[in-house]
Task: inverse folding
């Protein structure tokens, strides 16, 4: 993927003038290949070389941003087919649809749910980001009024859906500062919708008629109009067929650098299922496999929450474990007599241990030590969960001011550190060895006396 | 520009494994392409859903939503299994031998095995017996189950590095299948398959359990390890990994906090029943996409959703 340093070097002037900031053209080429330098730094590079380098070094899937401010959604920019090959980078935007013929109460309900459904997890705020506004009847005024209402109430990134180039054009002009996604340029109106997108500087959907070929033809037309920010909707609404297409699009973009398919994709889950529960499984499929924007008919919290978790899981960087913040976590309203447990900050460990403690209904203090995201056994083996490090952490954590007793519960797998830890904690302190498996924590806590 | 879809080259195939006996036996595996990639090659056997029953009344541990459909049978494992088959169309039954857990009820192995036998006799579909991952206890139980269920082609699970010799031998002695279980690691999965092979276990009787993490609780690890096993098996000719995969989904998704919070405790998370069902169904869908050939599920609504999903994807 991309050109190697040597391939880039062949396109450079080879004068070693040094004006780019590094002494030789070869060194500059290496920096370019590594993404550490910009081609503009070379004053002498030929126009031909520039074109070639620009097209070769452009990301295989165009990254682009929809919306502005807090709710702006960055999509595209992916570089792998399987998350374990490196990582997926830009999580798909989740959108809820409202249409101009929908009654106000229904729209208000969706707005209200959109605003409320936000969840904190590992220091992240999980939520949906987008609203899709759908035109029914081709009236630009009604369309703009609905868009205004949604935008004012939520600040969400917007998708404008209409068959009418006039409606899209009017709305794009009015809301261009919000960078909405125009949906869609189809075979029937690609010139007019493309022109509107270009004039407003908004990203635009190339919507095929249910085939990759028709989608490619449209994306090529939009590119020829010098539009860069394109999103693909093949028009296919069968689950199986869409799954095959999404796979082929991602492969064509990455493996073959096939430019007309090198764009993020739109999935209309609301048009692919019978009922919200089924829609959720359609959305789940394309969160895992290559959707960049997913539109749903509604975002009830019991549907949205599992999808947000899935998106978090799939888009977690496999090269970097997720971590919980070091500190004291009070669970079930503990007081000065409540037991104190200590564990590591690998996010899974934290979730499971805190979940079990919570489930036990025993008021407790959970201390989470920074082990750089390692689990208890790994951290212990690597010396990052030793009597000394755990002791130092506990002593500085401030927990000693919150409790009257002098007992600390450690994970069963770290039983070996108890002696050293008792020494670190000082006179009178006792270390109690807890269970090895988190599932045994409730039973342990119920029988525990500090 | 004319478009030629880029081809994925495949060089291997997942082995077919047949569970159970008689008219209702089930064959899994057999595909030579990634999961649901029927646009690239034959997928002879659709992935299957196994429904779980416990060998004890789970009322104290289960969310209301999960109990409701089974309220009349929760205290009778055999009746429960029958209901799964006749009312909810289960094609495979998993008996979770929860009562055997030495850290819990610690029921005698003979009693546990007797309950399993009742379930096996009550249904005509294949049965998988899922232990508690305690080597000594599972060995005791599985030996008895293997013997008492001779001829039923039941599946003994989980077989881990610490008990593969004992449970593997029981499977050989009484001609049963095994689920080789390893902790979320391609190499450990492969190693255990090799060990079982050396013991004499025929690969036609072997299913992989790479350990399941539920949605929000490590799903991504299981997802990626399944994709890696699939790639090794199908594109890198790794003969030792060309086995079907099973994921014990419900057991993980229903024990997490978010599947158990009631409407009153967590109004911000929406309807408790629907939430629990989707936590289960979304996990199942992800793992099916990643390459699971069998997903073990609990709630009939989640089962129905995923069954319908599989039908659409095939």
Result:
């Amino acid at each position: 993927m991309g050109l190697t340093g040597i391939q880039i070097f062949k396109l450079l002037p080879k004068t070693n003038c040094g004006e780019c900031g590094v002494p030789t053209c070869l060194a500059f080429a290496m920096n370019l290949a590594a993404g550490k330098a910009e081609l503009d730094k070379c004053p002498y590079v030929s126009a031909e070389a520039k074109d070639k380098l620009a097209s070769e070094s452009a990301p295989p899937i165009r990254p682009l941003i929809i919306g502005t401010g807090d709710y702006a959604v960055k999509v595209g920019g992916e570089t792998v087919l399987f998350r374990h090959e490196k990582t997926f980078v830009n999580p798909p935007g989740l959108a809820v649809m409202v249409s101009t013929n929908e009654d106000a109460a229904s729209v208000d309900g969706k707005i209200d749910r959109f605003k409320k459904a936000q969840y904190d997890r590992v220091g992240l705020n999980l939520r949906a980001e987008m609203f899709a506004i759908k035109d029914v009847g081709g009236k630009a005024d009604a369309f703009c009024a609905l868009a205004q209402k949604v935008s004012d109430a939520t600040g969400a990134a917007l998708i404008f859906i209409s068959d009418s180039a006039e409606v899209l054009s009017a709305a794009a002009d009015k809301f261009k500062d919000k960078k909405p996604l125009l949906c869609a340029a189809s075979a029937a109106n690609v010139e007019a919708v493309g022109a509107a997108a270009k004039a407003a500087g908004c990203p635009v959907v190339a919507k095929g008629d249910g085939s990759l070929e028709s989608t490619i033809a449209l994306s090529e037309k939009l590119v020829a109009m010098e539009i860069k920010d394109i999103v693909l909707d093949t028009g296919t609404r069968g689950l199986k067929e869409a799954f095959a297409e999404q796979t082929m699009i991602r492969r064509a973009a990455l493996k073959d650098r096939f430019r007309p398919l090198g764009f993020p994709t739109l999935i209309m889950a609301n048009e692919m299922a019978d009922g919200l529960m089924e829609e959720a499984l359609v959305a789940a499929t394309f969160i895992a496999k290559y959707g960049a924007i997913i539109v749903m008919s509604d975002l009830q919290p019991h549907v949205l929450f599992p999808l947000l978790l899935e998106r978090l899981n799939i888009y977690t960087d496999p090269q970097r474990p997720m971590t919980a913040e070091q500190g004291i976590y009070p669970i079930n309203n503990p007081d000065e007599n409540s037991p104190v447990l200590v564990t590591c900050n690998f996010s899974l460990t934290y979730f499971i241990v805190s979940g079990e403690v919570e489930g036990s209904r025993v008021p407790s203090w959970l201390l989470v030590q920074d082990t750089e995201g390692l689990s208890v056994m790994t951290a212990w083996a690597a010396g990052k969960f030793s009597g000394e490090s755990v002791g130092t952490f506990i002593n500085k954590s401030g927990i000693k001011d919150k409790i009257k007793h002098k007992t600390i519960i450690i994970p069963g797998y770290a039983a070996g550190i108890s002696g050293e830890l008792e020494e670190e904690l000082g006179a009178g302190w006792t270390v109690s060895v807890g269970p090895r498996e988190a599932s045994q924590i409730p039973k342990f806590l119920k029988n525990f006396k500090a | 520009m004319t478009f030629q879809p880029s081809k994925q080259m495949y060089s291997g195939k997942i082995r077919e494994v047949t569970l159970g006996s008689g008219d209702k036996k089930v064959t899994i595996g057999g595909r030579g392409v990634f999961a649901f990639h029927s646009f690239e090659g034959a997928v002879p056997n659709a992935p299957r859903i196994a429904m779980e029953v416990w060998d004890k009344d789970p009322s104290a541990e289960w969310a209301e939503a999960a109990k409701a459909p089974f309220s009349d049978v929760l205290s009778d494992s055999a009746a429960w299994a029958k209901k799964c088959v006749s009312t909810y169309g289960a094609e495979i039954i998993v008996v979770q031998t929860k009562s055997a857990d030495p850290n819990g009820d610690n029921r005698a192995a003979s009693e546990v095995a007797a309950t399993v036998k009742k379930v096996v006799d009550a249904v005509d579909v294949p049965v998988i017996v899922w232990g508690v991952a305690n080597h000594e206890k599972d060995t005791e139980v599985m030996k008895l189950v293997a013997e008492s269920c001779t001829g039923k082609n039941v599946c003994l699970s989980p077989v881990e590095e610490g008990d593969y010799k004992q449970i593997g031998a029981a499977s050989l002695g009484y001609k049963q299948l095994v689920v080789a279980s390893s902790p979320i690691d391609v190499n450990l999965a492969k190693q255990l398959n090799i060990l079982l092979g050396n013991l004499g276990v025929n690969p036609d009787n072997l299913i992989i359990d790479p350990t399941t993490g539920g949605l929000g609780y490590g799903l991504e690890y299981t997802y990626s390890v399944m994709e890696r096993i699939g790639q090794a098996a199908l594109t890198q000719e790794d003969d030792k990994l060309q086995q079907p995969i099973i994921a014990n989904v419900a057991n993980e998704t229903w024990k997490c906090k978010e599947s158990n919070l009631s409407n009153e405790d967590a109004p911000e998370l929406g309807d408790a029943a629907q939430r629990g069902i989707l936590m289960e169904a979304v996990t199942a869908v992800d793992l099916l996409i990643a390459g699971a050939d069998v997903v073990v599920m609990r709630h009939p609504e989640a089962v129905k959703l995923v069954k319908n999903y599989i039908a659409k994807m095939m």
User: Anything to note?
Assistant: DSSP finds 16 helices and 17 strands in chain A. The longest helix of chain A spans residues 239-255.
